[in-house]
Design goal:
The protein has helices at residues 33-37, 69-83, 105-117, 196-211, 225-233, 244-259; strands spanning 17-22, 40-50, 53-56, 95-101, 125-127, 130-132, 136-142, 154-155, 158-161, 177-181, 215-219, 239-241. The chain is α/β, with parallel strands linked by helices and 260 residues long. The chain has a single domain, classed as Alpha-Beta Barrel (TIM Barrel), CATH 3.20.20.190. The strands form 2 sheets. Strands 1, 2, 3, 4, 7, 9, 10, 11 and 12 form a 9-stranded mixed beta sheet that branches. The protein has a 3-stranded antiparallel beta sheet with strand order 6-5-8, with no helix packed on it. Strand 2 (40-50) and strand 3 (53-56) form a beta hairpin.
């Protein structure tokens, strides 16, 4: 006999994790898909412009003609958004695709812009300083320059900022987050407690960025729970990690402990 299932609520889906950034995502066994399986809301792809194609790899010698930005990221994201009623996670937040330009931006960005223009159905876009939020926010890092956007009326991406941009006066719609090398600013590597002097420095950076409506991410940093804990407790917005499963477990357990 068949059991009636009408009226039964669907199982609750795990909440997407805004604080997780998949560093060098393309190096995982299933680029993009592994990060989404662990409910990440920020994903990083390095690109090289070679023979007119935007190829995804960490180093130029690792490129492969079939591993394009479109095939690994933009097309699967579009398919996911269409199935998810307009969002990567149904009813969820905007997801960030951080695109790290490894070749000269003067030749790479025009090709990237043209590519992104084909995905305005899923991308957040900008008209001057006005943001039109959509499923995915593209942010450009690596070999980038504010000059890239000169003369543009419609913009299909934002810029990854540096600490100096906290004093630039530029809008958060242009520079929505700040990235910096942890080791270039701090000496603490996750053993013992974060020194008071460095905690004050970290807090000052985070608070200044937040007052401007910007998020904060550190790269070149230790990648384990004791370090992640200090970041979160001091207001850093994004855990930059290669450990997809470990970072998700850490945040889920932390959320459960907070509820108790």
């Amino acid at each position: 006999m068949l059991l009636a299932t009408s009226g039964l609520a669907a199982p609750a889906q795990p909440k997407p994790l805004l604080a997780l950034h998949a560093h060098n995502d393309y190096e995982h066994q299933r680029p993009l898909l592994d990060a989404l399986e662990h409910h990440f809301c920020s994903i990083e792809a390095d690109i090289y412009l070679i023979d007119g194609k935007l190829l995804v790899a960490h180093e130029r010698k690792q490129v492969s003609p079939e591993r394009t930005l479109e095939s690994l990221y933009l097309e699967p994201l579009r398919e996911r958004v269409l199935k998810g009623r307009g969002r990567v996670y149904p009813g969820g937040p905007e997801v960030t695709l951080l695109i790290d330009i490894k070749t000269d931006w003067k030749t790479t960005y025009p090709v990237l812009r043209k590519t992104l223009q084909n995905y305005t159905d899923i991308l957040s876009t900008f008209l001057g300083s006005i943001k039109r939020t959509n499923a995915i926010l593209a942010i450009i890092t690596g070999n980038r320059s504010k000059e890239m956007f000169a003369g543009e009326t419609d913009r299909f991406a934002a810029l990854d900022g540096e600490l100096a941009d906290l004093d630039s006066g530029l809008p958060s719609t242009l520079i929505p987050w700040i990235s910096s090398n942890w080791g270039g600013i701090f000496t603490w590597r996750g053993s013992g407690s974060l020194p008071d002097e460095e905690r004050l420095k970290l807090t000052a950076i985070v608070q200044k960025a937040h007052r401007q409506g910007r998020r904060v991410r550190f790269w070149g940093a230790p990648d384990f729970p004791a370090f992640w804990r200090e970041l979160i407790e001091n207001g850093v917005d994004l855990i930059n990690t290669d450990d997809l499963a470990g970072a998700e477990k850490f945040l889920r357990q932390r959320a459960d402990q907070t509820k108790q």
